[in-house]
Amino acid sequence: MTGARVAHPLLLGLANIRMNTRNKLSSRAFLLTALLPIPQYLHSRPWMWGMLEDRLMHECLSIVLKPLMKAAEIRIIMSDPAGNVRHCFTPLAAYIVDTPEACMLACVRGKTSPFTLASYLEFGDTFRHPERTRSITLAQLDSIEVDPNDLEAYFKACERYRLNGVHSPFWVDWPLADPSVFLTPESLHHWHKEFFDHDLQWCLEVVGEQELDFRISVLQPTTGFRHFSGGISKLKQVTGRVHRDLQRYIVGLIAGAAPHRFVIAIRALMDVRYMAQSPLPDDDLLARIDRSLAIFHENKDVIISLGARMGTKKPIDNWHIPKLELMQSITASSCKVGALIQWTLRHTNNNDYDPQICRHLDRQEKLRRFAIATTLKRTYADSNPEEFFEGEGEEDEEGEEGNGDYDQLTDPRTALLAEMNKTRITTNYFSKARKLVAARCDNISLPPRTFIAASTAIHLNFDPTRTGLKIDEVANDFNIPDLGQVLSDFLQRDARNGAAGHGLGVARRQLIDRPSVLPFERIQIWHTVRLQQVSFYDASVVLPAQTVHASPPSPASGWPKGRRDAVLVNIDRAYEWPKSGLTGELVDIGTDLTY
């Protein structure tokens, strides 16, 4: 939208769509339902602007969502994707908003929790206050005897309960709609943004900007994650992905440079964030979340004593942080609405995000219409125009004996829909490895470039990075003096085990004192390998593959000491990662990938 026209976009989606599908932008699981106005007010007092805007929002939501409220009350007849007619109810499952909008929907004013009855003076308490339910809010509104049209008097009367002056919430006529249920902690604003605005700033104060910048700048870059070569102290407007990348490093960065109890407090909040993002929270996980939050509160006094909680000019000696109080509601909300990670808001850089969302939606709609038009024109030009209309209303002469799969693939309209709804698909190396084993074709190179070792799929490029290198030369480049012995050990085990090669859970180097027997003198080298695993929570979900680098020193390529990524390998079949946890020793090695 242009010409200084801005609006609040209202997106609508179905809660029964699978989380993995609904959270993908390419799935278009949310539809733009309405653009709620953002007017400018002439009243001289800013607090009056806020109350009028809150009332306007609730009134607009009441008008736009009235059909859904009626359907939730008396049900509505709808057809499912299979064409079956069903009687459907439309309760409000979740409303995904930031903290200010959550307060507006809960009918409370600023510096008040939208989830509980806590005010800003109680945000740092170690326990969760009683939740602000639908019945409590409506009872408080009913107890106010001032005329709602007398704006100033009504707003003053609402101060007793810290209400925002909305006398008729949009959810009052929506059956089963309760702000304590449909308002949930949101990962982007309530967890990741809280980390950047508070946790990271505490670390910068305690460790020092220069020291923390140096520590993160010397970390080895990892493919798929951002490398902060210029430090992090000067970062301002950043995206949620940057927040998550910083969270992966922060505990290790401050270890050894910050007091022990300070590290414990930061680590406890990090544990809360990671566990709260579980797609399948159970009672044990929720108990651990509460325990980690309790550990933070037990050690948070060290943050104040170190002067880490800084204001604009001087240290702050209180815990009036709304997002910190919202963490107390993680377990309670998870018990009511399931995994909180499914109710998340993405694709914004937190810089005037309302206009950005409107422009984004407008551009996406225009791009989609353009794609439809061009695809229709291209398909119509490449095919016989009569094919689009012939056969309609006629019966298939072959009946059920026709090849339905072939017809579906060659139908221009089906192909058009498939092309319009293309999404980026994660390469499944597990499936490729199984197909290679099942095919057993003579033209497949052995050993295969894609194979499965335990719960990990390993993929190598068809062409090696370097070829025809002598073993002694490789051993010298990678600083592996016993490379020849290890290769001999591996080959002898491979000969005894037959097809059981590529095993990672076997003992190694038992033949190191015996003379090596190698039928070759030169080997091939791969400097990169792709590793892929399945989701810990759902084995049917294949995670994106990660690239691991192992290359010798090369000043010309910018790696004078070599590039060797760290990998955790389970070598004991009695253990199962990650259920068994981490035990063992730290070994500093350099390795290469050879065949």
What does this structure look like?
The chain has 595 residues and is α+β, with helices and mostly antiparallel strands. It has helices at residues 19-22, 46-64, 66-74, 99-105, 134-143, 151-158, 179-182, 187-207, 209-217, 240-254, 260-276, 283-299, 301-305, 322-326, 330-337, 353-382, 404-410, 412-420, 429-439, 471-477, 483-497; strands spanning 7-12, 31-37, 76-79, 85-88, 450-453, 456-459, 466-470, 522-526, 528-532, 546-551, 563-564, 593-594. The protein is built from 21 helices and twelve strands. The relative contact order is 0.08.
Key features?
595 residues, alpha+beta, 5-stranded antiparallel β-sheet, 3-stranded antiparallel β-sheet, 21 helices, globular, disordered C terminus
Reconstruct the topology from this structure:
Layout (H helix, E strand, L loop, with lengths): L6 E6 L6 H4 L8 E7 L8 H19 L1 H9 L1 E4 L5 E4 L10 H7 L28 H10 L7 H8 L20 H4 L4 H21 L1 H9 L22 H15 L5 H17 L6 H17 L1 H5 L16 H5 L3 H8 L15 H30 L21 H7 L1 H9 L8 H11 L10 E4 L2 E4 L6 E5 H7 L5 H15 L24 E5 L1 E5 L13 E6 L11 E2 L28 E2 L1
Antiparallel strand pairs: 1-2, 3-4, 5-6, 6-9, 7-8, 8-12, 9-10, 10-11
Helix pairs in contact: 8-9, 8-10, 11-12, 16-18
Q: Please give the oligomerization state of what you see.
A: single chain
Poorly predicted runs: 385-410, 588-595
In spatial order, strands of the major sheet run 5-6-9-10-11
Determine the N-to-C terminus distance.
Answer: 57 Å
* Residue-averaged pLDDT: 82
Number of strands: 12
What is the C-alpha radius of gyration, as a whole number of Å? 30 Å
Shape: globular
Q: Specify the structural class.
A: alpha+beta
Task: Tally the helices.
Answer: 21
**How much β-strand is present in the residues?**
5-15%
Major pleated sheet: 5 strands, antiparallel
